[in-house]
User: Fold this.
Amino acid sequence: MDIVFDEITSNVMSELEKTQREFWNVPRTTGILLNMFVKMMNAKSVLEVGTSNGYSGLWLAKALKETGGRLTTIEYYDKRQSIAIENFKKCGVIDVVRPLQGSACEIIEAFDDSEKFDFVFIDANKREYVKYFELVKPHLTQKAMIVADNITSHAEKVQTFVDAVNADDEFQYTIVDLPGGILTAYRN
Ligand SMILES: C[S@@+](CC[C@H](N)C(=O)[O-])C[C@H]1O[C@@H](n2cnc3c(N)ncnc32)[C@H](O)[C@@H]1O
Assistant:
């Protein structure tokens, strides 16, 4: 069966799916997978790079409500971040979301050493994916999962990232043939 949300969340999700192109949101299939991955990993601390209006963040946060975890999500534009915060509030997940506004690289670089994530979703500036990967690595728990969107739709821009994951002995990875293409990497 399809995932069942409360009526308000279902309505918000449906409305957001109408403006998916405008806000560069992941397709619903990817949202469902993100939600399942977080629950399967029993993730407690998730980092999202690229909030936009909060669509993928809602899929992550709804799963974190079940695992008892928290989402940190980074967005450069304050207007998009404000829309995302409204959506998180409407869907009753704002209490598990820490929205951060600014340049993703600068924000990750400034994280305290004690900041750890067991699941990371990368979906911001495609040419910076490789930087996000390098910057986030010291902040991963031992068994951590990384998912990145637009691997086939923006293949040339993300190639350095794919090469870096491929060259890293600690991670096993595969590219899943969803719309846009997602890379899933796991360190065990
Ligand atoms: C593809 S959209 C994210 C879509 C979102 N993950 C979803 O599926 O609902 C990418 C977002 O990343 C933001 N972004 C791009 N470069 C960024 C950067 N360097 N730092 C922070 N955010 C950035 C953009 O403003 C945009 O809203």
Q: What stands out?
A: The radius of gyration is 15 Å.
